[in-house]
Amino acid sequence: MTGTIAVTSEGPELTSMVDPRFGRAAGFVVVDLASGKSSYVDNGGAQALAQGAGIQAAENVARAGAGVVLSGFVGPKAFAALSAAGIQVVQNVENMTVGQAIEKYRQGAFSVADAPNSKGGGRR
Amino acid sequence: MICAVASGKGGTGKTTVTASLAAVWERPLCVADLDVEEPNLHLFLNPELGAEAPAFMEIPVLDPTRCTLCGLCAEFCQFKALSVMGKTLLVFPEMCHGCGGCLRLCPEGALSPGGRELGCIIPGRAGDTGFLMGRLRVGEAMSPPLLRAVKARLPRDCAGARDILLDAPPGVSCPAVNAVMDADVVLLVTEPTPFGLHDLRLAVEAFRPMGAALGVVINRAGVGDAGVADFCRDENLPVWAEIPFSRAAAEAYARGQVLADALPELRGRFTALMEHVLTAAAKRAAGTGEARHA
Prior knowledge:
Structural class of chain A: alpha/beta
Strand order of the largest sheet of chain A: 3-2-1-4-5
Number of domains of chain B: 2
Low-confidence stretches of chain B: none
Helix content of chain A: 25-40%
Distance between the termini of chain B: 23 Å
CATH topology of the largest domain in chain B: Rossmann fold
Structural class of chain B: alpha/beta
Radius of gyration of chain B: 22 Å
Number of helices of chain A: 4
Oligomer: heterodimer
Mean pLDDT of chain B: 95
CATH class of the largest domain in chain B: Alpha Beta
Number of domains of chain A: 1
Number of strands of chain A: 5
Strand content of chain B: 25-35%
CATH architecture of the largest domain in chain B: 3-Layer(aba) Sandwich
CATH superfamily of chain A: Dinitrogenase iron-molybdenum cofactor biosynthesis domain
Strand content of chain A: 15-25%
Number of strands of chain B: 12
Shape of chain B: elongated
Helix content of chain B: 25-40%
Largest sheet of chain A: 5 strands, mixed
CATH architecture of chain A: 2-Layer Sandwich
Order of helices and strands of chain B: EHEHEEHEEHEEHHEHEHEHEHHH
Largest interface: A-B, 15 and 11 residues
Order of helices and strands of chain A: EEEHHEHEH
C-alpha cells in the first residue's frame, strides 16, 4: 500500500491515542504507507486560533503531503478545505491508538466520507 | 454628552437603568440599544419603529479567473477567511472581520468588495425621545461591526439631541468595549453579590483606561454582602445610585414597565443619578479642556 496518511493524534507516537477533534487536534502523526515511517506535525498553531482552527489544520495536513486524513469529527470548513486539496477524509475514528487506526485503514475497514460529520467550531 | 450604561455581569439591570434614566432625563435626548445580540430596550420604551435598514460588512468576493494562487491574501488574513488549498483559493466569508487588507493586497485584482449582512438598524421615536437600535442577524457571530454601524448613525438619527444614552451589551470583551469607547460617562450597573463584584472588577479594569468618568449603580441593593461597596470605596469609585431589591420592582420589570414611572418612590433616585452623570461629564469636559491648554 502506498500514499501518505495523517491521523489526528494526542501525541507524536503510533501508540498515542487518536485525537477525535480535527481542527483542535494536538497534532498529526503522518505515516508513509509504503515504508511505514512516521513523523509528527504539531497543530498547536491551529489550537491557538480563536476561529478557523479547522482551516489551519487542513493547511497543516496539506503541507505534510498527506492524501488521506483519519480523524473523529471534521467540520464543514475543514472538510471543504481538505476536499479542495484533494485530501480524502475518514471520520468517526476515535477510542484507539494511531497505530490501530492505521492498521484498520490498511485492512480497508474505513470508508471515505463525502460530507462533514460535525458543525465545526468545536461543536459536534 | 454620551453616557453608556454597562456592566461586567449580565442581568444586573442595564436596560432597567437606561429606561428609567430615559424617563427622567432632560430633553432633547436620544437613546440607543447597542446590545444588538438581544436588544430589549424597545420593550420598555415602546418606541414607534421606523424602517429597518440592513447593515453590511465588506468581505472579499473572488474572481477565480484572475486568481494566480499567489497566496498573499491568505498569508495576510489572520482569521483564515482565505486559504489556498490545492489549486483553489477558498473564501470563507463568515470568517472575515472586514479589515479589507486582502482587497488592497491582491496584485491581480481577483478580489472585489462584497457584503455580508450583519443585521439591521432600526430607528424610532419614543414620545419626544429619539431611539435607535441594532439587531444582529441570526447566525452572525460578530456583533462589534453592527454595533459600530449603529453608532455611526447616531450623529444623523440623534441630530437634535443634547445627550445620548447608550444601553451597552454585557461583558467586557469587544462588543462592550466598542459600546463604551466614545462615552463621556460610563455607568457600571452591578449587584451586591460575589458574582456582581467579580464582574465589576473586570469592568473597571477594562473600561477605566479608556478615560471616561465611571460611576456605579448598585441594583438589588439589600441582598448579598458588602463586597461591592467595599470595592468601590477602595477604588474611589462613586456609587451614584442604589436600587433596592423589591418584589414590586421585579413585578414592574416583568410587566415591561419603566421603574421610574411605575414606582414613584424610585424616581428621585434616577433624577439624582442623572445629575451625577451630568456633573461628572461637565467636570471631565473641563478637565480635558485644561489638559489641552497645558
